[in-house]
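Standup notes
- DV: blocked on the single-chain target, sequence here:
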Amino acid sequence: MATLYPLKFKPIAKETVWGGNRLAQLMGKPFDITKKTGESWELSGVQKNLSKVTNGYLKGNNIEELTEIYMGELVGDKVYEQFGVEFPLLVKLIDASDTLSVQVHPDDAAAAERHNAYGKTEMWYVLDAAPGAGIYVGLNKEVSPQEFYDHANKATLPDILNFEKAHPGDVFFIPAGRIHAIGKGILLAEIQQTSDITYRVYDWGREHHPATARDMHLDLAIDTIDYNVHKEYKTRYHQQKNTPVELVVCPYFTTNLLDIDTLTERALAGRDSFVIYMCIDGEAIIDCNGEKETIAKGETVLVPASLADIHLKPKSTVKLLEIYI
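- DV (later): unblocked, structure below
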């Protein structure tokens, strides 16, 4: 087989009741700015939403076809052994011009039992935030499942939700079971398990209007929620120039921030995993043993597991999220 190379994919636009036009205006997505585009699925292994390659000789192939052919060369031997042809991560850009529904995701056990699927643990990296905008994440006081249920039905749920003001560069880790909602005015990158299971419990009144009503799942959600109050909901880290900074390390993915203005080598031979780079600012060349691809703001590139030595060459300065298992 021919040598693998850094892969780009066609972004998948998702129109939503809460979406806007910043994915096109700020992140360079080729989307219709007259439509409410809430999400750009940058790399997806979700059935009926399989990402397709846009560069090189593999152009037109989807991620499942590539994994079926290249197996561990593409995703890593341990990843292929665990997930088979299903690509295990879904990465998105999200534009919330209005507040998203209050929701929760089941863990692996509940998702397997109820939906024959994986659960959904995720993280967010905030790219842009309107003044005063923020994230609803977790609870501000301990409540019983019955009290939570009553608040949801009486439309008083916001009273018990923890609200965190958000700024560019903020990181939020959302394990399965943590109640959450992205607030109006937030633009962010999302990394998550490959799962499209969401339990909506409250939708700010939109659920009562025919034009905006969506399915609600309070009964399903009630026994999956973490009712504990945690000390901190925002991930603390110290940004450093030309030094990889760990943002999130969990069983499902690791995410680092690279803020670089000089040639940077990432020797990741021991990881036995693909690497995803999401460019959040600037531009760089990804060089893997002579296989090169440019990455610019708003773009995502998948580096196959077989390409162990990665050289990142910034055009001037570049910020990248580096994601692998």
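- Follow-up: The chain has two domains: 7-235, 245-324.
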